[in-house]
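To: structure desk
From: M.T.
Subject: fold request, one chain
Message: Could you run this one when you get a chance? Sequence is below, nothing fancy, just the single chain.
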Amino acid sequence: MPSLLGQFYSRIKGSQEDIASESLTYILQKSLNARQALDSLVFYDSGIVVSDLTYRTQQVGENKERPDISGFDDSGIEKVILEAKFWSALTANQPVEYLNRMPENSVLIFICPALRTRSIFSEVMIRHRRIFPFQTGASDGFWLHGTHDFRSQLQLGFRI
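Reply: Done. Structure tokens follow.
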């Protein structure tokens, strides 16, 4: 049985990533359980505690970087960036300008199909090390999730 969103995809303007980002943001805005599931995922991967963030799409920064989804705390500080990379290439601003705009104790998560996980991770690491040559390991501040893994994590929290 096809999904509701799948029925209307061809009639909606925008890329798959834009539609997925708008859909996920809508779910995060409406569902406390979804936000709590994402909070848990962030903590599990990074050890960083975030709580009940406000999510918005396409928040343009000083250097024209525009992440798909940004999560802000009560003080308006961006704590989480979610970037969908289904089929498009990394832009010139990814991940470096995203990391530059983020404060300490924040997280950048790329969401991509399992088939792209290795290539996206390699490209992200190359670009990251070019700019931040002395940082290594989990303290780099970003994680990569396959779409199935990410969706499975969120399903634990709010049963899609």
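Reply (cont.): The first helix runs from residue 4 to 8. Let me know if you need anything else for the meeting.
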